[in-house]
């Protein structure tokens, strides 16, 4: 979801997203240990983070949901996100997703260190600070590494995730299911359609969308769908490279799902031919990939409709109508 925040300002924006960086911190002098009881972030950095002093705190732009900062210390740098309006559950889910991707040992992601509540209200997450390179990630390397993550990250529990999380600021339900079509229909498309009906009174898209859900099984015929670990929100603002040029992915909305669902934000990701060629060398393309592609775009168009308004309704409605005609229902 394009409103997510990254580790460093990516200078990537879509005019219709209405998101501006939130730059709220000013530079400060090194913090003394006496301040520990007032700030759990500093407390962790100056104890478990093995720093003896924080030399600088600087704002990091790029998102509109959380406040992001870089903490420079004598033990290295840390990346910190805070939010004064929410409890730790959102950041806990993010940390679990980052940790799951990190443990595959494939594509680079920031290692999460600590999640907790702020004093008085709000929450924070502390993670590895990654120095970004000057260029975007190499498309073929990105495709290969992403496919390696999908191949390595498997679940014996089926489709879902240990916790619910968010895609942008929208709740994402991850209750386990052994049936991908049921999971995707209920917890992805169905959930978004209900939001649209409840928020906008849009009974037309709700009814047509549910006709599609009830009749979409033929799109998945003659393929084997394994639950793969997905980033879940892979658009250009969540993709970058480190100083060595290796791809880095950020701000996940992880779950175990059909690998093709990872391309649902491709309209905002800029994936080219070299990306897909490299990806399919590791994870071979399955029959009917092209006819299923838009069913995965639909989830994210619906989410953008619910988050940002009617500008995205026509794209979602067009996909639904096209599938209803294709399936003759």
Automatic annotation (TrEMBL):
GO MF annotation: an example: protein-ribulosamine 3-kinase activity
Does the keyword Kinase feature in the UniProt annotation? yes
**Is Kinase one of the keywords?**
yes
Q: Which GO terms describe its cellular component?
A: chloroplast
Q: What class of enzyme is it?
A: transferase
Kindly state which reaction or reactions the protein catalyses.
N(6)-D-ribulosyl-L-lysyl-[protein] + ATP = N(6)-(3-O-phospho-D-ribulosyl)-L-lysyl-[protein] + ADP + H(+); N(6)-(D-erythrulosyl)-L-lysyl-[protein] + ATP = N(6)-(3-O-phospho-D-erythrulosyl)-L-lysyl-[protein] + ADP + H(+)
Look up the EC number in the record and give it.
Answer: 2.7.1.172
Q: Which domain of life is it from?
A: Eukaryota
Compartments annotated for it: namely: Plastid, Chloroplast
Question: Any idea which UniProt keywords this protein has?
Answer: ATP-binding, Chloroplast, Kinase, Nucleotide-binding, Plastid, Transferase
Q: What is its main location?
A: plastid
A Pfam family matched by this chain, by name? Fructosamin_kin
| Function summary | Initiates a process leading to the deglycation of proteins. Phosphorylates low-molecular-mass and protein-bound erythrulosamines and ribulosamines, but not fructosamines or psicosamines, on the third carbon of the sugar moiety. Protein-bound erythrulosamine 3-phosphates and ribulosamine 3-phosphates are unstable and decompose under physiological conditions.
> What is stated as this protein's family in its record?
Belongs to the fructosamine kinase family.
Name used for this protein in its record: Protein-ribulosamine 3-kinase, chloroplastic
